[in-house]
Amino acid sequence: MKLTQKEMEIVEILEKDARLTTEDIAKMVCLSVEETAQAIKKLEDHKVIVKYISLIDWGKVEEYTGVKAMIDVKVTPKRGVGFDEIAERIYRFKEVTSVYLMSGAYDLSVIIEGKSMNEVASFVSQKLSTLDSVLSTTTHFILKKYKHDGIIFEPDNKDKRIVVSP
Amino acid sequence: MELAKNSRLSKIARDLKPSGIRKFFDLAAGMEGVISLGVGEPDFVTSWSVREAAILSLEQGHTSYTANAGLPDLREEISFYMRKQFHVEYSPASEIIVTVGASQAIDIAMRAILDPGDEVIVIEPCFVSYAPMVQLAGGVAVQVQTLKENDFKILPSQIEEVITNKTKAIMLCSPNNPTGSMLNKKELEELAALVEKHDLLVIADEIYAELVYDEEYTSLPSIPGMRERTILISGFSKGFAMTGWRLGFLCAPAELSSAMLKIHQYAIMCAPTMAQHAALEALRNGRSDVDEMVKSYRRRRNYIVQSFNEIGLTCHMPGGAFYAFPSIESTGLSSQEFAEQLLLKESVAVVPGDVFGESGSGHIRCSYATSLEQIQEAVKRIKHFIDNLPETN
Q1: Which positions of chain A have pLDDT values less than 70?
Q2: How far is B301 from chain A (nearest CA, A)?
């Protein structure tokens, strides 16, 4: 889908803050509220905007014991379908949050989330590495998130400027 | 006693008026929870790659003076930048001086061209330092006022009216602080014709040239015939969000540059070395950051201008810089009263328009170089303030 300049603006604005109202966005891009609502609807219908979600810093939640791991997976691609078939087999597991096809030393980068280290370990050993096309896996547990999707988790947002200046 | 004390000061220092902004700074500085639309600088912190380059330069021990005119590499980059971005050629060897902010560039420009009594036409409302700098250099500032009806753009006829045989130069700032107005190519061409006709110079403060939102920017010296008559002032403060680094530059034909360089070397030696290394990185790799900032300013400008118009403060759409300049005449208050009461009642700081010149009265300068959330809250409070003003008539 080819976006108009205004549609592109709207996507960029929403990507940074999905909670802005249509009225606010309309003002920012100089469109009427109606035109803006239509544009957003179109972007949603075409799945350019896939979903509106929140970025949570789970590290702040005491009860949360979950773990995340990035797994480098080497696989054998299949004739006709390449990597797509095995990628699909992997991403269908609910534990898997992201799957990327990579260039370089391994083929698929798989991010999985589990309630505990054990849960992740058993998923890898029982589900992932036993798949036919999977040749090897290397698991890296994430210890701390500093920045995610361009957002710094503990930013220093204090305005250090003097209040009035020429 | 008073007389004895005074005589220690020069007449020029005694005659210098304190800036009208100072009063507001003092008033706002002591208050808690103030939302400030009064800040004349970007809300972005300098890009990390630029800060990192400065750190590296310190680690490598680049702590000595540079050439008076600035690091040769930096002047090369400035020359390339002026050619690529603004379509004007300046020789890095003889026509570019790196200065301590654009302010120092304006200062040496005035000192290089003015004899006692020479007149400089200062187009108001404008940055508060222009007229004092003319005065400090022994010149006489002759003010002309741009008008709201013309979206605060100067008309050549207005300038022509005040030209005398002592007029030496015009001080021009486009995009303008505080009105955000910008002269387009055609308007600059008309101004250029006048400048040539009267054999004048122009000190063109183009510090906001990166921050333009609708039209393509035209730099004055790119107009045929103007390069030889222009002292171009620019810098890194606004476009590259580097105010605290104090780094600007000026470009002018060699004859003018060499005179300004003489003053520069006696007065200041050279601009800070680490800031020059930072600026080098900004020019080499900072383009995408500038583009991002411009996008962000444009959205906030659209938002604030529409919001002001909605709540009854008429505001023209400024072409550049990061200031909205709404009229507050409908409230019946003067701009000083408005700004002061708004600060005290609603804790929102704005700058009264008349501190920038006579025709700024009846207006307030609101910087939108602050987060959208702050702008939204400020507009809400301003609306509340206006709605609760006692009926004047």
Answers
A1: none
A2: 8
CB pairs under 8 A between A and B: 61
**Cβ separation B128–A166 shorter than 8 A:** yes
Are both B78 and B126 inside the same structural domain?
A: yes
Distance CA(A110)–CA(B240), nearest Å, equals: 39
The rounded distance, in Å, linking the Cα atoms of B82 and B221 is: 10
Q: Do A161 and B351 touch (CB under 8 A)?
A: no
Q: What is the DSSP letter of B363?
A: B
A133: how many CB neighbours lie within 10 A of its CB?
A: 18
B392 is a domain residue: no
Interface TM-score (ipTM) > 0.90: no
User: How far is it, in rounded angstroms, from Cα B333 to Cα B40?
Assistant: 24
Cα(B199)–Cα(B169) distance, integer angstroms: 9
Query: What integer pLDDT is reported at residue A65 of this predicted model?
Result: 85
Nearest CA in chain B to A156: B45
pTM of the model: 0.92
Q: What range defines the domain where residue B185 resides? A: 48-285
Shortest distance between the Cα of B320 and any Cα of chain A, in A, equals 16
Do B312 and B211 fall into the same domain?
no
